[in-house]
Amino acid sequence: MKNRTILLMIAVLGGLCSCSARIEGTLRTEGSAELRVHASLEPRIAAVIASFSGRLGGGDPRDFALDGAAIGRSMETAPGISAVSFYNIDPKTVEGTITISRVDEFLSVPGVDRKFLRYSQGAGGGNLAIRFELDTAPELLLLLSEDVADYLSALMAPAATGEILTREEYLDLVASVYGDGVAAEISGARIALTLDVPGPIRRITGGTYSGRRARFDIPLIEALVLDVPLVYEIEWN
What is the residue range of the signal peptide feature (predicted)? Predict the structure, then answer.
């Protein structure tokens, strides 16, 4: 059953492999955060993942459905996550929440300096910086879940394999293995992320803002290929 959850797990934590994802988050002054997630699969990608499930012992592909409860269980041990709750709207759509106890510990390894995520908050304001790049992405995916890494490797995503490809080369590869329809769904997919921070925003990189709310519109292909690092930063008063 857990093999059926992998695609949406990635969507929950940044939308790396869902064809439709909306993530709304609140970052609190003490460094905790809550993410509210809506994620679903487009038909052709759902069929591909169903075929994976069948080959890996996940059951009859005709019965394929994303399992919200299983998604939550599979993410409970990821560093920095204190609670996860998901439920199904339909067989291909999941909604739920993720509570992060400390943003600065999310997907962290003790004693290892990381470039992925940095957070600070002081009397003069705060800063949240995220950098997702090819040389660190495979390790981050393993921290999230070995199954996640396995599934993205099956989809040949450089974010999991570490292979250097352009976006065009990756889409050509996907089309040659899974067909033009799957490649088109990946090419057109986007992740909408909004985040409310503790104070009025004074500067943002990679998005737009109004008051305390930051908005990011992330093409899925950019996150899968990482031919250019994804860099997002918010500063607030």
Answer: 1-23
